[in-house]
Amino acid sequence: MKSPLLKSVLIAALVFAGSNLLAQEKTSTFKVYGNCGMCKKRIEKTANVEGVSKAEWNKDTKILTLVYDEKKTDAKTVQQKIAAVGHDTELAVAPDSTYSKLPGCCLYERKSK
Length: 113
Ligand SMILES: [Cu+2]
Fold this sequence. Notes:
Blueprint: H1 4-22, E1 25-31, H2 37-47, E2 52-57, E3 63-69, H3 75-84, H4 96-99
Antiparallel strand pairs: 1-3, 2-3
Helix pairs in contact: 2-3
The structure holds copper (II) ion (CU).
């Protein structure tokens, strides 16, 4: 390396690239209780907060697959948001008043009740 300046610029570029790699996305899967296609839409829409790049709920297994940036959000926060719109999750329970306002087809069997 001829120039010390060039060297430090290169090092800075490498450190920058490295920190971008560290911001890699994390995948979490957890259970969200629900029944139908409407539930799927509601759950996925609610889970799609800032920092989430993918939220996909499987109606049959009740498993939500969440891909997100750990620096911006976490699985627990997303589960709390989902519970707040009426769906129980592994870590969060929906308020009874919210659950009871869901459309009839969405009134899934609550494990915790
Ligand atoms: Cu539903």
